[in-house]
Design goal:
It is a single chain. The chain is α/β, with parallel strands linked by helices. A hairpin with a 4-residue loop joins strand 10 and strand 11.
Length: 297
């Protein structure tokens, strides 16, 4: 099969030249070449990333290691194509969300056998570790299934299957036995079908101590009648940036209380630090000031 991505020569003249060449081995994707790259190569890794967010939060550490890994793998046999999709470009957002269902950045997917197999990358984050992990997966293994989605070469069928995989991954899940994890894909549905939902907007650096008390409170009220649903929005997760902004979350810990399917939204200006006090607060008649923000996103 003719590869859609050609290998490039590598010189060792200067540090700047080295950095440019490392970038050259990571293929930039967009709607014009995405499908072609996937179906014409046996093994393609795609990094769905937001450069400005990664620069701010992670100093582009992974992006740098990813580029180094592409240099290590430049002459690998079988060929492993390392590619990236810039999610700050609007044309790429529609591609990732509508066809594949990507919401969290950075996310790495491995498209194998011309896109018939899909795997989420859970490997190391250093360059050599990335290379070793991908080489192991790329090595033919007769015990592996030939396809995750059936024997088909139809691109639309492949992408339909990918969308189902990722939409399923974004269904509501519990961060613990009593606390529901919320993301944009399940936020409205969760708020809309319950009369009383407490949402903790969680920041790992500022809310960690309260998170333990919040879970205790959720446990205490797990059998309350009427039921009180405890949920959490992880603001460290880029996918939840819009939720954080919509509800004007600036101080942590931050609590919003949604009543009547989201028709009423209240905020707690002072959040009790102790689980028992928090329980009393929720059972009280005045659980904060009325917030005019709509619960719908």
């Amino acid at each position: 099969m003719e590869d859609s991505v050609s290998n490039k020569s590598f010189s060792s003249s200067s540090s700047n030249a080295q950095q440019q060449q490392e970038q050259d081995f990571v293929v930039d994707l967009d709607p014009s070449n995405f499908t072609d790259t996937i179906i014409k190569n046996n093994f393609v890794v795609v990094n769905y990333h937001m450069p400005s967010v990664e620069e701010k939060r992670y100093s582009n550490a992974f992006a740098t290691e990813y580029k180094k890994a592409s240099v290590i793998l430049r002459n690998n046999d079988p060929l492993i194509v390392l590619a990236q999709l810039d999610m700050e470009r609007k044309v790429n957002v529609a591609l990732a969300k509508s066809q594949i269902g990507i919401w969290i950045y950075p996310s790495l997917l491995m498209f194998i056998n011309a896109g018939k197999q899909l795997h989420v990358y859970y490997g190391p984050h250093d360059a050599q570790g990335i290379a070793n992990y991908l080489r192991k997966i790329a090595t033919p293994n007769p015990a592996q299934p030939t396809s995750l989605f059936g024997d088909t070469s139809e691109t639309e069928m492949i992408f339909d299957s990918l969308a189902k995989v990722f939409k399923a991954a974004l269904r509501p899940k519990f961060t613990s036995e009593f606390v529901l994890d919320l993301v944009p894909s399940n936020f409205n549905e969760t708020i809309g079908k319950h009369d009383f939902v407490v949402v903790h907007f969680y920041d790992s650096g500022k809310s960690k101590k309260f998170a333990a008390e919040y879970e205790k409170a959720a446990s205490i009220l797990s059998s309350n009648d009427p039921p009180i649903v405890f949920a959490q929005v992880d603001v460290d997760n880029e996918v939840n940036i819009a939720l954080e902004a919509q509800f004007d979350i600036k101080n942590y810990p931050a609590i919003r209380i949604f009543r009547d399917g989201g028709k009423k939204v209240k905020r707690l200006d002072e959040v009790p630090a102790d689980a028992q006090e928090f329980v009393k607060c929720l059972k009280g008649s005045s659980a904060g000031n009325v917030d005019n923000t709509s619960a719908q996103i």
